[in-house]
Amino acid sequence: MDTLKITVHIVSSLDGIIAKKDNSISWFDTTDHYEKGATVTAQDAEEFVKSIDCYVMGARTYEHALALSKKHGWAYGNTPTLVLSNKGLPIEQPSVEICFGDLNRLVNERLKPHYKNVWVVGGAMLIRDFLDLKLADEIRLSVMPIILGEGTMLFDHIGREQALHLKNVTPYKSGMVELHYEVKK
Q1: Pairing status of strand 152-153 against strand 17-19
Q2: Which of 66, 92, 97, 123 is the most interior residue, by most CB within 10 Å?
Q3: pLDDT in tens, 123-153
């Protein structure tokens, strides 16, 4: 298998909040309009998502994704999804596997041999762990045009400085801005 790339992807408000206290995602929907922003077609999005070999998420993110799937469908399709948890969680998708243990071992023994483009999609503690262990190669932060004021902070208690290299900035018609960083190791 080619070289593994691990991307941390997260959606945040301008003030760095990734989840409201009630876990609602209504703040993802924006009425903002930025005329110069990029337009993404369904075909563009589908092609991009096909490039992701595997998703990794924490238990709370998985529970939230399961709850949302009742109304909106499973957001991760048939792509293998590893959920890191020490507790028993329901598996309602054949592509989902519950894993636990050491992250270095997971990356070296499970991800590297089988995948080349892995996305870590939440939550905040898991993202912190991937950064602390220097396992993340890049960060894609989608900033929504809203200030939430309270909720779960993205980089709360990260505990150390982390240098990044800006690879790209993409503003979208919706007012969302995607910041694409390489993690300097």
Answers
A1: antiparallel
A2: 123
A3: 889 999 999 999 999 999 999 999 999 998 9
User: What CATH number corresponds to the domain at position 163?
Assistant: 3.40.430.10
Nearest to residue 175, comparing CAs of 28, 41, 75, 8?
A: 28
Question: Using CA of residue 148, residue 156, residue 136, residue 98, what is the dihedral sign?
Answer: negative
Tokens of 74: 């499973």
Query: What is the domain range of residue 144?
Result: 5-183
pTM over 0.85: yes
Cα 76 off chain centre by:
11
DSSP-derived secondary structure for the chain: ----EEEEEEEEETTSEEE-TT---GGG------TTSB---HHHHHHHHHT--EEEEEHHHHHHHHHHHHHH--TTTTS-EEEE-SS-----STTEEEE-S-HHHIIIIIITTT-SEEEE---HHHHHHHHHTT---EEEEEEES----SSEETTTT--S---EEEEEEEEBTTS-EEEEEEEP-
Residue 34 confidence class, pLDDT cut points 50, 70, 90: very high
pLDDT of 22 reads 87
Q: Quote the number of domains for the chain.
A: 1
